[in-house]
Amino acid sequence: HLPRQAALESPFSPSLSASAGQPQVPAGLRAAIMERLILQLRSGEKTGQLLALSELCEILSLATEDLLHSFSPRELARALVGVLHDDEKTTPDIKLMSIRCLNNLLAAVPVSAAPVAFADAIRPLCES
């Protein structure tokens, strides 16, 4: 887990929204972070995936739907479900973190339920 100060400095933290009186982090930066994390998930490299999943869990647990307009929930859902489907490279820790990320995604962005379902998440979730 990141130290509390780092969590407060997350570009997705509600404390950094304009409504909190703080400068808002540009959507382009948030999109670049999400793109980097999605690429790490798709890399197939266990350590990179675990680090990306850890960061995603934190981002998604702090995020609100308004702050997540800068990325495609469909692409994130596909990447997370892809990790779950890759039985050869997926460790129990990676599976658990992927499931947590999907849960946090659904909590932060309820409209992402359709992309998660279309990404074929049901089977690996039921089998886990």
TrEMBL record:
Swiss-Prot/TrEMBL keywords: Transferase
Residue ranges of the region described as Disordered: 1-20
Entries under InterPro entries matching the protein: ARM-like (IPR011989), ARM-type_fold (IPR016024), HECTD1/TRIP12-like (IPR045322), TPR_TRIP12_N (IPR057948)
Enzyme class, broadest EC rank: transferase
Residue stretches making up the E3 ubiquitin-protein ligase TRIP12-like TPR repeats domain: 40-127
Cross-referenced PANTHER family: E3 UBIQUITIN-PROTEIN LIGASE HECTD1 (PTHR45670:SF1), E3 UBIQUITIN-PROTEIN LIGASE TRIP12 (PTHR45670)
Catalysed reaction equations from the record: S-ubiquitinyl-[E2 ubiquitin-conjugating enzyme]-L-cysteine + [acceptor protein]-L-lysine = [E2 ubiquitin-conjugating enzyme]-L-cysteine + N(6)-ubiquitinyl-[acceptor protein]-L-lysine
Protein name: HECT-type E3 ubiquitin transferase
GO BP term, example: protein polyubiquitination
Top-rank taxon: Eukaryota
Source species taxonomy: Eukaryota, Sar, Rhizaria, Cercozoa, Chlorarachniophyceae
Listed EC numbers: 2.3.2.26
Recorded GO MF terms: ubiquitin protein ligase activity
